[in-house]
Structures are given as C-alpha cells and as structure tokens.
Specification:
Largest sheet: none
Strand content: under 5%
Number of strands: 0
Oligomer: single chain
Radius of gyration: 27 Å
Shape: globular
Distance between the termini: 82 Å
Structural class: mainly alpha
C-alpha cells in the first residue's frame, strides 16, 4: 500500500474526538459474550481509569455507565416514602418489589451508591460502580462456562470474523476515511479562519488562533457544531485573555473552588474549569484599567468582547461607589 493519504502515525489516543471514543467504547460493550463478560468490561474500565488521560477517562466513564447506569443519580424516594411509592420505584427500574420498606430502600440505594470505601471513608477513585454491580460481579473472575456456551460464542465470532479481521480490500479504504476526516477538520478550520480574517485579524494571528491547543474544542470537539460567529467570539476571548490577562486568568483558576461532578469526563471538566477561569479573569483585568475610554481605545480588545467589558466596567464602578459610600453611611 502506498503512503498516499495514509493515516498519520503520530496520532494519539487523546487526539481522537469524543464521538470516535464513544464508538470504541460501544464496540467493547456490544461484544459482551461468555468469553468477554461484564467482569472483563469492569477490569478494562478500571485499567483505563488508572491509566489517566482525557481519552482513557472518557472511555472508562462510558464503560462504567454501561455497568452501573444509575450510579450517582438522586432517588425519587427516601425513608419517609410509603411502601407503595418504594414498590413503584423498584418496579420502574426492574427490581423485586417484595420486602419491607427498609429492604426496598436499600435495594434502590444499591443502584445509585457505592458500597466500597477506603480507610478515609472515601469512595474508590478508579472503580466507579454501584454496590449492586460490585455484588453482581463478585467472583466472576473464577467463573467457568460450559463447553456448549464457549462453542456458541466461538461460532458467533467466526460469523463476524470480518468485523475483527477485515480483509485487505476493507483496509485499503481506511486512508480515504482518514482523508475524509482531515478534510472535515480542514474545512472547519478554514471557515473559522475566514471569519477571523473578516474581523480584521492578521493572517498569522488568525492561523495561530485556529491552530492553538485550546482551539480544537471548536474545530472538532464538543463545540464543533457552534455557528462560526459564536466560535470566533470564543476564540477571540481566549486569545485576548491569554495575551492580555494571563496573570489574572491564573489567579482566577487558583481562586476557583468549582469541582466537577463525579461522573464528568476529564475532557469536559478541563474546559469547564478553563471557561470559569476566563470569566474570572475579565473582571480582574477590567479593575486594573484607568478608564472606560482606555478599554475602548485598546487595540487588543476585540469588538465581540467590548460590550461585555463595558458591562464589567459599569459593575466595577458601582462596587467602588458602594465601597466609598459605606464608611460615611
């Protein structure tokens, strides 16, 4: 096979978009069989969680969600609920409805809570499953299957051999699939760069903004579907903060106490935290400016960001007036 259009050998797992990672996780989930059961999925998810990295954590989260789909959810019932309400809640999730109120509530909590804790009474960091899943998969490592089940699984594997070992004719099409992906990403980058050029940015500046490490979320990440104008606004905000208010951004990140939900992927948590840092950096930068006219005259301030900075300036002025009027009142 020639090198024309071949996939880039340096591509990393963390470079794959979330939808591709979801397809990989779905393939692991859908191939469950007597030879690849839920316990194997659990071991793989824990190993990916320990390995770390945005992609590995995303894959692990998808596998844990498959094993314990209700982990972390709030129950619609509690100790004050009636027997009938508890039975309805159990029936809705396919649990037995027999037993006392305490038994029914415990059965429901096993679906949304984890029974394992470390010496400091903290939940596990790398095995995020419910107590029900732990009890279900206990001892599965030593579990044996019958010869007939193994034979059936192998025959099914042979019937779908082309999925696991595609012929050369199918492999020859992979470069074109990769080329299609590169064309899609290239078209998105070109559209964003054209939008930035229309706003008066220099060619080199526009290229750096769409090629930077934080730009891929609008190129092929979870915000790739945003309109070009909205994406350009976000790119200008990022470039302005990192060019003009980097120290304020780092100060805002250090002062931020936001913690991501337990089941949020590292990828989404990273950019949510970055957005929080951006929001905290802008008012800090505004507070260091001598006047509103100086902000408006600053050539580094993009037009898309100016209305927000003007609002932050007005808010800063109100706070200063309140502080000055405080002692006299």
């Amino acid at each position: 096979m020639s090198d024309r259009g071949a996939p880039a050998a340096a591509a990393r797992l963390d470079d794959l978009p979330c939808d591709v990672l979801d397809l990989i996780a779905a393939e692991w989930i859908h191939t469950c069989s007597p030879l690849w059961d839920r316990h194997d999925v659990l071991q793989l998810a824990a190993a990916l969680s320990i390995a770390g990295g945005a992609a590995c954590r995303h894959l692990a989260g998808a596998l844990f969600a498959f094993l314990s789909p209700r982990l972390g959810r709030e129950l619609p019932v509690d100790e004050r609920s009636s027997q009938a309400a508890l039975e309805v809640a159990c029936k809705e999730v396919g649990l037995p409805v027999s037993g006392t109120k305490q038994a029914l509530l415990a059965r429901l909590r096993e679906q949304v809570e984890d029974s394992a804790h470390d010496a400091e009474e903290q939940p596990p960091k790398h095995c995020l499953v419910s107590a029900h899943t732990r009890a279900e998969l206990a001892g599965w490592r030593q579990q044996r299957i019958s010869q007939s089940k193994a034979g059936t699984s192998i025959r099914q594997r042979e019937l779908s051999q082309e999925v696991f070992e595609p012929p050369k004719s199918a492999l020859s099409e992979l470069p074109f699939q990769w080329q299609w992906w590169e064309e899609r990403v290239g078209a998105r980058r070109a559209a964003l760069q054209a939008g930035l050029l229309e706003r008066g940015h220099a060619v080199a500046k526009a290229e750096s903004m769409v090629q930077g490490p934080s730009s891929f979320v609008w190129v092929w990440g979870n915000k790739q579907g945003e309109p070009v104008a909205a994406a350009c606004d976000s790119l200008e905000r990022h470039a302005f903060v990192f060019d003009q208010a980097a120290e304020h951004y780092h100060a805002a990140v250090q002062a931020d106490t936001w913690q991501p939900p337990r089941r949020m992927s590292q990828y989404k948590a990273q950019y949510t935290r970055r957005d929080c840092g951006m929001d905290g950096a802008l008012p800090r930068w505004v507070a260091t400016q001598p006047s509103l006219e100086a902000i408006r005259a600053n050539p580094a301030v993009p037009r898309s960001l100016l209305p927000r900075l003007e609002g932050l300036w007005a808010q800063h002025q109100r706070q200063q007036n309140q502080q000055q009027a405080g002692p006299s009142s």
